[in-house]
Amino acid sequence: MPDSTLPLITAVIPTRRRAGLVLRAVRSALGQTYPNVEVVVVVDGPDAETVETLQGLAESRLRVIALAENVGGSKARNIGVREAQGRWIALLDDDDQWMPEKLAKQMATMAHTDARHCLVTCRRLERQPGQPDNLAPRRLPRAGEDVSEYLFYSEDSNKHTSGPQTSGFLGTRELFLEVPFSEGLKCHQDWDWYLRAMHNRETVAVAMDEPLYVMYVEPARPRVTDIARWELSLDWVESRKHLFTQRAFISFLINECMFRCEETSNRARIFRKLLALSRSSGRLRMKDLMAAMKWYMFRPSVRLRLVRPYKRLRASLRAAAATSHAMEAPPREQEVQG
Question: Which of 158, 199, 241, 253 lies at 20 to 30 Å from 39 by C-alpha?
Answer without folding.
Answer: 199
